[in-house]
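Page 47, continued from p. 46.
Same chain as before, 653 aa.
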Amino acid sequence: MQPQLFAQDPDLVKAYDDSLVSLVQQAKSDSIRISYLFNLSRFWSDIDTAMAFDYLRQAESYMGAAPSNYNLGLAAHHRANIIFAHDMENAKHYYRRADSYLSNYENPSAYNYRAKAWNNYGSLLQQQDSSSQFMDLLVEKSLPFARKSGDSTLVASYLLNIGLLLMNIQSHEMADGYYEQALNTISIQSTANDSKFEILINRAKNALYAKQFNLANTYLRDAELIQKNVTYPDLISSFYRVKGTYYRHIGMMAESIANLDNSLALAINFEDDYAVRDIYFEVYATYRDFKEFSKAKKYLDSAIELDSNPTTQNRLLYLKEMANILNALGKSEDAFKQMEAYALAKDTFHENNMALKILELEKKYKTVEKENQILRLEEVNTLNENRLLRNRWLIYLLFAGIVFVLATSYFIWKLSQKNLKLLSQQERLHQEEIKTLEQEQRLANYDAIMQGQEQERNRIARDLHDGLGGLLAGSKLKLSAILDNQQKEGRNEQKAIEDVVDQLDYSVDELRRISRNMMPESLLLMGLTPALADLCKYMSNESTEIKFQSFDISATYSRSILINCYRIVQELITNALKHSRASEIIVQCSQMEGMLFITVEDNGLGFRENISYNGIGIQNVKNRVALLRGTVEILSSKKEGATINLQIPISYA
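Result:
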């Protein structure tokens, strides 16, 4: 790929073309001539496909009547490059063909082209919503071939691509690891400024996604040191775009817009609609974050207009953001329509994918069946002809041979099917192990966070109770003594001091309330039942009555179960009080056959009228239950309240 600015300057284009054409004419052999013509085809593939095809045909004309597989592989690769943006399926076909032709060659050039072919193939899959397949191809094909080719810049490029894919699925720590590997791969190369600049930009973007703003600023400053040596203006545009995002996150609107304007000017100049659309969306996000919703909607409209064929994820993003911005502008009805479309698209996306896969499988099955029918007919015809041409003994021998071949083929087929099944089972087990490990890691991280929170709450509660509580109580006693002395001496400041004593009483009560909420003493001293009963009594108010019912609850649960169950019920009651408008909440706890059952039921609005139940609160509940190896069941109907049932194994502790 050529620098975009270079491709936009007709004089530079003509000069480069003329120089390569001159080299073609001066070439002393057809192999050198073919190489220069391939370079011309690659150069023109981003500018003029007709010219690119013309140079490709010229290269093919010098290959002779029996071209080598190497030249055929390069020709297929360059043909795929030309049609990359216009005919994805054929482009993928030619990339596969290129790899097939080059597979018999073990030299750096062949490995280089095979690495590029699989990377481009995966890039096409990504554009068709198959990012996971792109990741597989990068790890299993492109990266190993790039390393065999000895091209460190190419290796860094594919490490960068892996980092980008991980960043897109919010695996920021792993993404940064690959960015660091990519940077280390080319760190000693003084001529790799473009690659280093691109890696630093994406590393800064990844840090912004991870809310590590100081780290993002460090990477941007490192990129700024080599900016003057960068030849690709699209990278400069990306730099200003990420810098604008950084300023948005730290609350500097003017600086954010200024950098985004610089980025937009460059993107418009080299006619990169994808970059322009991306910048429009970031400008929208900036105005949105600073509450300038009218300007924000203008840029969101522009971004949507430029995305003529959005991916499913982009379409969902546009619908959700448009719903939010319309709601902010007071257009509730339009916002509701957008959110309704978003929900419908999100619900049907998985169904459509499954339907498509089923149709593809059915089509493959029918094709195989037709091929089998043809093969069976051909076999019957062959046997009939043999019966007519050979005598009886030859027919017996032929039949025996056919039976033997069929039996052997059948056993070989059965063996291969068994092996395929075993491989498939091993792959599924491997994937399940990975998922289990990831889940256990997430739960371990969450457990550590929860334990840290509970320890900090316990410490603050002790400090409040033992430190500030003691001081307040002492102050009250001293004031009470002063009040008694004044009463004896007949002074008139009694009312003012009584007010101070009352205020101290209120402060002590409030301090006890805060301390008990952070770490209830009754939970650790008396057990789960008294603590939950006290919690329900305490959180009841004039508009909402909270009833607590307990059956066969043990007093000797582990500390983990005690704290997590208490916090779960506390979170569910808090959510119900905030959102359900219920007049009655019932909390039930019971123990049966090694399981602890907890139910929180309210007679409020239900979840459909209050989407906040899908927020952080209910997610915290699910995380705590998962940590205890339990299950959550949520039942809710519109205007008929909500019921949350929890089952927690007591043996977990």
